[in-house]
Write a structure and sequence with these properties.
about 375 residues, mainly beta
């Protein structure tokens, strides 16, 4: 068990970053687990933390000094021993060996996710305001919409953008939660995942493709990078999986959506709109050409519900690493549903610390 303290005492320690925490690994099967370093973003502490399989804290980096929640998802560990992350809207690179910052980009309002493309450019969601006349008797409404933004690290210039509001009508396609106020700013799309794929094959053609997921719209899209045209989409407002009432949605308010090498899609399905509410790791079999989408695998347990945050990532050995935000818990599950690694993060009085996202990097 590893106990970490801070040099300062903060009055509102339950909300702000620098507070004591405890890491405890309660289950570890070294023969069946995918052994490596586990990195995670703590929404309670505003840190990105890295531990080994025994729970020893090896990296502890303060990203924010105030509550930012979803921003804590935005990190990606690189093979060269650095970590790409977002801090106050700014893409940065952290050298894990000495905590230096060898790269700092411009403030592009980046949030929730970040990835390094094969072209050595940065791709992340950014924000913009759009204005819609939702009803004739209402004032114009300001919506917070998302832009998928590509940043060239050499020049620090934006070289590609994809504006969701240019392709999806926010009046026709929106979540019911934005309907009730008269005017005001509303979180229309809330993109929390972005991925880049080279040589993606669709309908017999090969593309560079971008996948991104909208939490509020319960939908993810796959876009042709060269033309910016939508290749296909899945979910409540997508081409696939859009049939049925709310309680029959394939997934709801999902996080960390990932297209796998076999064409399936892995995600953390938060389940906010499900009845009853329940969160789960979900793998979908998706064939956009045949217009087929169906559940391939899922895992949950009684009482597991995270209305925000979360992650479910397929590991190279077939296991899934899962973030259970509300319990301050990360678990690794086999395809048969057995837990082979379990970690808790707790604070004062053993109160769980929210863990937004996670990843596993193999030992060398």
């Amino acid at each position: 068990m590893k106990r970490i303290g801070c040099s300062l005492t903060i009055l509102f320690a339950a909300l702000l970053g620098c507070q004591p925490y405890e890491i405890e690994v309660t289950i570890y099967d070294p023969d069946r687990a995918y052994n490596g370093y586990t990195f995670f973003g703590s929404g309670t502490n505003q840190k990105i933390i890295g531990v080994n399989m025994e729970g020893e804290v090896l990296w502890d980096f303060q990203v924010y000094d105030s509550l930012q929640l979803g921003e804590m998802a935005a990190f990606e560990v690189q093979e060269d021993g650095t970590m790409l992350f977002i801090q106050h809207g700014v893409p940065r690179v952290l050298d894990l060996s000495d905590y230096s910052i060898p790269y700092e980009g411009p403030d592009i309002l980046g949030h929730h996710d970040i990835t390094l493309t094969p072209m050595r450019t940065i791709l992340c969601p950014t924000r913009e305001a759009i204005y819609v006349d939702h009803e004739p008797w209402r004032p114009y409404n300001t919506l917070t919409a998302d832009v998928i933004t590509e940043l060239d690290m050499a020049s620090n210039e934006i070289i590609w953008e994809w504006h969701l509001g240019d392709y999806i009508d926010p009046i026709e396609h929106h979540h019911k939660s934005i309907e009730y106020p008269l005017g005001g700013v509303r979180d229309w799309s809330h993109v929390n995942t972005v991925q880049f794929f080279q040589d993606y094959v669709f309908e017999g053609n090969t593309y560079d493709a971008v996948l991104f997921n909208s939490r509020q719209l319960n939908t993810f899209w796959v876009v042709d990078y060269a033309t910016s045209e939508i290749l296909w989409s899945c979910g409540e407002h997508g081409i696939l999986g859009s049939e049925g009432p709310d309680e029959a949605l394939l997934f709801s308010h999902s996080h960390q959506v990932e297209l796998l090498s076999n064409g399936n899609v892995m995600m953390y399905d938060n389940g906010n709109d499900h009845s009853p509410r329940s969160s789960r790791a979900l793998e979908l079999h998706v064939d956009p050409v045949a217009q087929v989408v169906e559940e391939a695998w899922s895992w949950t347990e009684p009482g597991m519900f995270d209305f925000w945050g979360g992650a479910a990532k397929k590991l190279p050995n077939g296991n899934v690493i899962l973030t259970n935000v509300g319990r301050g818990r990360i678990i690794e599950i086999t395809p048969s549903g057995e837990i082979v690694w379990e970690m808790f993060m707790r604070g004062t009085l053993r109160i769980p610390h929210a863990i937004y996202s996670c990843d596993r990097v193999p030992y060398e």
